[in-house]
Amino acid sequence: MTGDLELRLVGSPSPRGQIRARDLAVLADALQELRLRIGRELIKTAGRGRTRQYMEELTEIRLSRISPGSTVLTFTQGPTDKLDAILSEEKLLAERFREIVEAIGRDERPDWATDLIAESAARLVDGLRSAAPQVVVRSGSGTEVTIETDHIHRETWTRGRIQTSDLVTAKGRLERVDLRTHEFRLRDDVGNAVDLRHVESDTVSGKLVGQWVAATGRATINAAGLFVALEDARVEEVEDPAAPYVDRALVTIQSILASAPGPDPAGAIDLDDEELAAFLRAATS
Question: How many CB atoms lie within 10 A of CB 184?
Fold first, then answer.
């Protein structure tokens, strides 16, 4: 069991232990929709042996308590008749939900957040801003996120992204592999990260972690025009462009100086006594 979800509304316009009905409705609906969309993205029900009912039970939240201090909303998460053992999907859902809450607090949309997830996050932002100037979100793991609602914006989550139908190839070092979600990530030689979603033959491709790869898939482009993700990606190993320069023998500075040519004794200017005397007078005058 991943535990309860608590929202503490600090400075709410309602009396302690109370919340306006319209604020509760917006918050509850946005939270439920957000969990559902994260769950769908993670599990991809079709072909994975999970039914619609399973998805709804896994992502379900229920308001279990409203208590003072200032006003605390407590939601119970997940199926009502599950065993004590935590399903891997449930744990992963909790992790991704926490990442979204933390991103809302930073007012920064993660690259992995799809448009549907971002749409739900924007609705949650609206609900939080209306409910209180400060909201402390506490997850079942004990993690707390404090959100100053004056500093968050729905526009952070609604800026347009474009998903192309054309196949695009990105090259970089495969730095992250998650076989549970079929999501990888590569980083190119200038530091840009590209998420790889729903990777084909992920078990085989996962063995390439740390290697230089080429990934091909349908690109997602952010508002700045950068590729941030490839959908249904195919990954294959390619040669590391730095390979020709790896394991070369190091040359010390001492070796470089020792091999450098010095002054040529035979190449000095030949002066007679009178010319040398004139030079010394000029140098000391």
Answer: 27
